């Protein structure tokens, strides 16, 4: 009987020892899990903060670029540019025109690349809708013309056409704004697009750039 009691006590002691060991393992596992989770959360928070900070800096840079002067850009008082719909010819004081009275039908300006000259009165109406007009003459290098065609082909509210009589080889126009650039890689090209495609100069923001005149 004494031997049986001793064996039972030993078994209970081993069971208790195993139970305590299991509890200790569970505590260690919980501590490890909590620690790892805390590190993961801290890492995610830190990474999220880094991404947010980077995005904020990039946004600030874009806003600064949008406000920075565009070199040699010409401006006209938008309030003094006529906006009447007319059917008679209009003589514009600049070429290409950047505003003024125009045809009641706008020129399609949703990534349209025109290989031939387009009617100015319709093009001016497109500028009123917030489009950027890229023009070039015979002096423009073919490689630059191709690059600009590709850019226009990817940018809604922009269109492109030749204007033989213009003074600069490559010019960009928006309502009341115009700049002559040195080539397709001139940084003023991106700056002009960024600022004036549906930009603050637009008299009729959000107006259609499709379902107008197709001058192809």
From TrEMBL:
- Could you list this entry's UniProt keywords, alphabetically sorted: Membrane, Transmembrane, Transmembrane helix
Q: Where is this region: Disordered?
A: 62-82
InterPro entries according to UniProt: DUF3105
Mind telling me which residue stretches traverse the membrane in this protein? 31-52
Composition bias (Basic and acidic residues) maps to 62-80
Q: Does the keyword Transmembrane apply?
A: yes
Q: Which domain of life is it from?
A: Bacteria
The answer, when asked if Transmembrane is one of the entry's keywords, is: yes
For this entry, the protein name equals DUF3105 domain-containing protein
The source organism is Streptomyces ficellus
